[in-house]
Design a protein that fits this description.
Blueprint (H helix, E strand, L loop, with lengths): L15 H7 L1 H10 L16 H7 L5 H18 L1
Length: 80
């Protein structure tokens, strides 16, 4: 990681529940926009990872979703 580059908040191996703890509203919106909205309300979200959801529920490019989550949280934080 280059100097000044921030560490990503979202990782492929992170559970959906862990992602929700970062920012529930924004994560729910991004997941819904990518066709994964039900994942945020599913009882399995404490064990299923972001990567698993991308691979098994919809055809979503994992890195695209991770970047969308990072960008949405960054923009949401700046608006407050």
């Amino acid at each position: 990681m280059a100097t000044g580059e921030k560490k990503p908040r979202f990782r492929p191996d992170m559970t959906i529940k862990e992602a929700l703890h970062i920012n529930p509203e924004i994560v729910d919106i991004v997941f819904t926009n990518y066709g994964l909205g039900l994942c945020t309300r599913c009882p399995m979200n404490s064990t299923e990872t972001i990567e698993y959801a991308c691979c098994h529920f919809v055809d979503v490019e994992l890195n695209e979703l991770l970047q969308a989550l990072e960008t949405a949280v960054d923009e949401g934080c700046r608006q407050k």
